[in-house]
Amino acid sequence: MKIKRIVSFLCVIILLIGVAGFSAVTGSIDVNIGELVKGLITGANDDVQVIKDLRLPRLIISLFAGAALAVSGVLLQAVMRNPLADAGIIGISSGAGFTWVLGVSVFPTLYFWSPLFAFCGGALACLLVYSFSWNSGLNPMRIILVGVAINAIFSGLSETFNYRGSYTVTSVTSATTSTLTMKTWGDVEIITIFGSIGLILAFLLFSSCNLLALQDKTVRNLGGSVIRSRLFISSVAVLLAAIATAIAGMIAFIGLLIPHISRQLVGTDHKVLIPFSALAGALLLLVADTVGRTIIAPNEIPASIIMSIIGGPFLIFLLRRRDLTNGN
Q1: How far, in Å, CA of 141 to CA of 257, rounded?
Q2: Poorest-confidence range of 38-47, 63-72, 117-126?
Q3: Which of the residue ranges 164-168, 220-224, 226-230, 304-308 would you say has the lowest mean pLDDT?
Q4: Is Lipoprotein among this UniProt entry's keywords (predicted)?
Q5: Predicted TM-score of the model (pTM)
């Protein structure tokens, strides 16, 4: 198992570096790696300056957003003990998107703190899912059904802003899709600061995630607090999903796909699972954005659509497998 983990980490890191390099030099403006590096150092190449201002921020945001969504999925699945939990499916991302739009519309000068606006909506959505799903425990199917309803409510509220002026229309479009176009270094600064904080906090909670795999009674006998652990882990999961939604838009299924694949490759120990999922999530979203950006160039397919095409069938597969496991 140890060798399998090492090989998995190496493969993901190599693929991540390769895809990042390919994404940086491929597009409407093509340069080779040598020209890109030289242009970034000297600043004498106009094409490279365009890439620096438009393509590199997009690349970095894809990496951080993918990592944040994947780790958020790992944490939500740990705290809910539900392999189908994902911020995009159970309404956390749509809640974050709604309050983000509301916050930047009312307080446009506080754009740097927009992830905190998104966090409030994500936390509210998460609380609603918990409240309506709890019935002597968290039933996996009830969580999904309630989450779909919460997602629909917040998505509808977000869409109402389409009729309240051009600035808000732009905000809604940014929050509800994920083309990742026209991102700036200011956006990079926000997602790297808040994203790094969230990812570090997530890794520090690995032992609590491992404890929640046990029965509540067992955790209490070991001296742990189930309620406190769930609260902390849920808060970090919502923070990560909110950060990604505020900057990259609503992207579903990364938090569903990556944890399942990662467990098959590196096991269920969250000390290893969380960093591996971060790398794999970054790779998946970068691949989705690069494919969407280049497959029908100069037109683009949003990364959120690419992920829906991949993730929808995967969710059906997981539901079908659960039915077969339960003998239905």
Answers
A1: 18
A2: 38-47
A3: 164-168
A4: no
A5: 0.89
The answer to whether the bond into 298 is cis (omega within 30° of 0) is yes
Q: What is the CATH number of the domain that holds 320?
A: 1.10.3470.10
Check pLDDT > 70 for residue 207. Answer: yes
d(CA 80, CA 78): 6
* 118 contacts 61 by C-beta, under 8 angstroms: no
- Find where tokens 């740990």 sit: 78
Rounded CA-CA distance 161/105 in Å is 10
Helix 92-106, helix 140-159: angle, nearest 10: 30
| DSSP 8-state assignment for residue 107 | -
Domain boundaries, position 157: 2-325
Q: How far apart are CA 43 and CA 38, in angstroms?
A: 8
Give the E-state strand segments of the chain in sequence order: none
Q: Report the candidate in 322, 319, 321, 327 with the shortest Cα–Cα distance to residue 148.
A: 319
End-to-end CA gap in the chain: 33
When divided into structural domains, the chain yields a total of 1
